[in-house]
Structures are given as structure tokens and as C-alpha cells.
Amino acid sequence: MNGLISCQVQRAFLPTAFPMYVMGKTLWDDTLQFEELAKDYFEHAFGEDGLLCKEYLSQLSAAFNPPYLRNETEQISREAAEEFSKIPNIIQSFSKTMRKNLQHEDKNISMSWRYLEYHANICSRLASILVCKASGDNEEMLKLWFSLKECSQEDFHLLSSFYDKEEVKFIRDKQRFIDLANRVPSASVFDHIAKFFCVEENGQMQGYFICAVIPKENGDLIMEVIEYAGKRKAVLAGILKTMVQLNITVISGYTSWFDTDMVKALEDYKINLETCNYPGTMRIINFTQFMQKLKPLFAQEKMIEDIEFCEADGKYMIRSGNMELVIDNDKTMHNLLLGNDMELLETEHISGDDMLQLILPIPVPYPYNLNYI
């Protein structure tokens, strides 16, 4: 699609942000070499032992036998069980390097190693689970799995604390953030105008937040905080300052508000907080091109050969024969094509019930958590 649609979930960063780093770099320049990117990332994130870390993770990835995990090989296998049993030794052999770097003088580098140590503990326990699976011991496998799952849930705040204890290190300085905000002062986020705010203390960048200010039916304003990052106290102060300036009394938050510490802080300030689900994990940049790419799937799964798509004057049209579906705004289009809000079928922003029933659910390659009827 001349680009990439990607759900930026937090789990994509365990144990490192290297996949996201490669994605971002190569979207801008697809001639970059993988090994050069790997060297740059690991040396910056993990310091002088960065390439040792890369080698360790490569060895660990191979030991987990990706074809087995994808169910491409026999699941009851003595050979696979023996290979999985070697994983704790790989981790143990590297543990000395990990422990040494936990005390690194650069706090950002030491944090990377601390996160890696947490990942190593998970991998050791996963290895035991896979040994049981490959050996056919389903009872012990499930016992170990549920134990790991419970511990992982309990450790959520431990993982969050990795980012709370140390000051965030911004690659861009304050002026570059401000320049970015000035070049792109606002952007449409699902039919709302969102603005980018820098947060600083004593002239130093401490964080940022992106929000949209939306009028409610009663005339009040509500602030939808779409994204934030940085030192929580500083970001909170910036949000509160903006609320006072704009005379806003209610905040609405998307998935960021699973940050329970931020929610509690807002409640302590007597701020009315409305939590809401993000209306989709992906954004369609070019509606016509996106849907055109799906035409073979419509033909194969929906048996529609003559389907056409177009976008004009802020409206989105899907046509087939004498039937036409018209969606009159960006937010409804995203919720309909990428969401699962059944109430949209009754909305005044959509016309063309026959076409709607014919095309949904959209047969995208990854159907989970998207739309359905």
C-alpha cells in the first residue's frame, strides 16, 4: 500500500524496540541495510555490550524454534523438547553480562538491561512450558502456563515502573519539538482537530501530549487526550494548565488511561475523567487505495466483481451495480471499516443499507478485532 498500517501495541517493545526502529527507519529509506541498523540500535540502547546483546537475542530466537511455534512441525517431539530445555542455559550464560550492565552509569542503558532481565525470566519459564508441550505433558504445561500468566499480570506495575523511575531521555531537544509542532500545528484525528503540546521545566523538555478539544451538546468542552509521553508529573501539569486556559472541566482518555497512576492523579485534582476505547487500532491514510488493494478479496470472499471505491468532499463511497454505500465523515468510516460498533448500523452518517450488509465484514487479511455483523 506504499506504506504500512500498524497497531502500535506496547508488547511490540518486549524485549527491545528494535522492530519498531527498523520499521520507522525503512519506511523513510528502504535502502538501509539491516545489519547497519542493528549495530546502530543495539549500541545506543545497550551501550558497549550492545552487539553481545544482539547476538544473545538472535541465539535465543533460534532456540525457541519459530517453525514449532507456528505449528509447522510435529508438536510432540523429543528433539524439540531437548532443544527447549537448552534455553535456560543460554540465558544463564549471558546473565553475567546482564547483571554487569544493570549498574551502567547511563541510566537509559541500565534501564534497557533491566527490561531485558525481566524478559529473560519470562523466557526461562516459557522454555519449561514448551518442554512439557513437546513432551505431551499437557497437564503440567497448563499448570505452568497459568502460573506464568498470573505472575505477568502481577508484574504490570513493575514493568511500568521501569519508565517512571528515571527521567525520559528525548533525542529531540525542546526547540526541535517546537519546530515540529509549528510545521504541523494540527492534524485531523478521526474528524477532530488535535494539537501537539510540548511540556518543559526550567527550559528542558519533559514530555508532550496530543489532545483534541471537542464541544459537547450542552455547550461544555471536553478534552480528548490521544497520546502523551514523558515525566508523568510534568505532563499532568501541562494538561491541567491547558484545561484552565481553555476552561475545560472534563477529560476523555483513550488507551493511555490504563495508566492507573495518571488516572489517580487526575482524580486527586477532582478532574472529571471519562475513559473510552480507541475507535480502532489502525488508521486508513488513503481510503481509495486501501480499498482498491482489497478488491481481489472482495471478489473471492464476497463474490463481488464490479465493486468500486472513491472519496470526495469528505465523503467515502463504495459502489457495486446500482447499489451505493455513502459514509459522510472520517470517524464513522474508521469505526465502520476497522471497528466493531454495532450501533453504527443505525447511524444517520451512513446511507445504503443493502450495500452495507453486502460488504461487511471487510475481508482484510487480519480480521481479529476489526468489524463484524
Q: What's this, in brief?
A:
The protein has 373 residues and is α+β, with helices and mostly antiparallel strands.
What are its keywords?
373 residues, six-stranded mixed sheet, 3 domains, disordered C terminus, Aminopeptidase, alpha+beta, 17% strand
Q: What features would you describe in this structure?
A:
The protein has 373 residues and is α+β, with helices and mostly antiparallel strands. Helix content is 49%, strand content 17%. The chain has 16 helices and ten strands. The two termini are 26 Å apart. The relative contact order is 0.06.
Write the layout of secondary structure elements.
Elements: H1 18-28, H2 34-46, H3 50-63, H4 66-69, H5 78-84, H6 87-101, H7 107-135, H8 138-154, H9 156-164, H10 174-183, E1 186-189, E2 192-201, E3 204-215, E4 221-230, H11 232-246, E5 250-253, H12 260-268, E6 272-275, H13 287-293, H14 295-302, E7 308-312, E8 315-320, E9 323-327, H15 330-338, E10 350-351, H16 353-359
Parallel strand pairs: 4-5, 5-6
Antiparallel strand pairs: 1-2, 2-3, 3-4, 7-8, 8-9, 9-10
Helix pairs in contact: 1-2, 2-3, 3-6, 5-7, 6-7, 7-8
